Sequence to fold (290 residues):
Amino acid sequence: MRHLDPSFSLEVPKGAAEVGHPVVKVRGADALEVEDHLAVEEPLEIRLGGYPLSITMRTPGHDEDLVAGLLHAEGIIHDADGLDVIGRYRAGDGEADLGNVVNVLLKGDVSVARERLRRSLVASSSCGVCGKVTVDSIRITCPPISCDAVVPATLFPRMSAAMSAAQTTFDRTGGLHAAGLFDLEGRLLVLREDIGRHNAVDKVVGHMLRSRRLPLERHVLMVSGRASFEVMQKAWMARIPIVAAVSAPSSMAAQMAVSAGMTLVGFLRGDGFNVYAGAQRVAGSGSELV
Fold:
């Protein structure tokens, strides 16, 4: 077996979404050293009014959208009017450039928002908040979606193909999740890639929030992996009625879809898929699927 070049630098260019890396490619009895491409994973520190709030791991790119989407998903802001300024933290005179830091200035009481978000982030990472209690707590502030949109079954394979074609970084690295937002005619409006599936969704919603295009009641969200509770929660907060996943949903994702009045499609394979909730929004050849 060949040894990799020990002099290779692991330094990642600032803001890069992917980086070259030497690998030994083994195919049967053959081994060849080549350059591969890896998805970049780096920490992003989020500050509110200059005070450190949290650190999340993400793929660099569209960081302002990521932060805006996260704040929206956690109920800190409801639209672009809740934001004053969001941008890169600029080091003061004599300070070191910290790099991956985004600072947010909100309109309103920042101390209340900071404490609410801190509690929310702690709860979302704990095992003490789960199941029906979590769904019910979200339902208090986020009513079920009553959108009467109906889309054809043929829409989902077309969206899957469009999203795959737009995943340029995934094609080179194979290590990124994607989230795509479509209109009801199946046109791709925005796609974001990230090493975290939840980050990709936050980037999509954050982009639409900053563009003043929320709520998203006439749109479809597609994710490249599985549909988790967090993905459904973010879609529910953004009022997205239809979520489609290339892979399977979790039990809690399906439970949330039922509670939220959302349509959940999963296991997209060719022209086939499963509908786990809200089948009335998916029409077959001239008739509703049941």
About this structure: Residues 1 and 30 are 9 Å apart (CA to CA).
